[in-house]
Amino acid sequence: MNILDVSNFEIKETDGVFTFKNENTTIGFVRFNEIGEVEYIFVNPIFRKKGLATKLLELVKEKTGKEIILQEPISPLGLKLLKSLNRWK
Questions:
Q1: Lateral strand order in the sheet of 17-21
Q2: Are 12 and 29 contacting, i.e. CB atoms less than 8 angstroms apart?
Q3: Contact at 8 Å (CB) between 43 and 28?
Q4: How does pLDDT run across 9-68, given as a tens digit for each residue?
Q5: Residue 11, H or E segment
Q6: Do residues 31 and 19 lie in contact, with contact meaning Cβ atoms separated by under 8 Å?
Q7: 56: buried, middle or exposed (CB in 10 Å: 19+, 13-18, 0-12)?
Q8: What is the number of other CB atoms lying within 10 angstroms of the CB of residue 58?
Q9: Cα–Cα nearest to 32, from 71, 6, 77
Q10: Of 41, 44, 64, 81, whose CB neighbour count within 10 A is largest?
Q11: CB-CB neighbours of 1 under 10 Å
């Protein structure tokens, strides 16, 4: 996995959503609630396998001060991501 340098991305937070953007597109986002439950996480396919999902979850943990709770995935790709993020359970 190549680690992605997110310093060139804009990080926005609005109403329980962190979003990484560059000047051209949305790179990824995570929707969460105040108890640390992640309702949805998405990473643009071009930017996958570079640690971005982990960085998004770190932001949620920092913001909420809670352990991350991942909801059951709704797609095969979500299940694959969940398995790769076992340490967040």
A1: 10-14, 17-21, 26-32, 37-43, 69-70
A2: no
A3: yes
A4: 899 999 999 999 988 899 999 999 999 999 889 999 999 888 899 999 999 999 999 988
A5: strand 10-14
A6: no
A7: buried
A8: 14
A9: 71
A10: 41
A11: 9
Q: With 0-12 CB in 10 A as exposed, 13-18 as middle and 19+ as buried, what is 15?
A: exposed
Other CB atoms within a 10 A radius of the CB of residue 74 amount to 9
Question: Token pair of 15, please?
Answer: 């109403």
- Prediction pTM value: 0.80
Written as one string, the DSSP assignment of 24-37 is SSEEEEEEE-TTSE
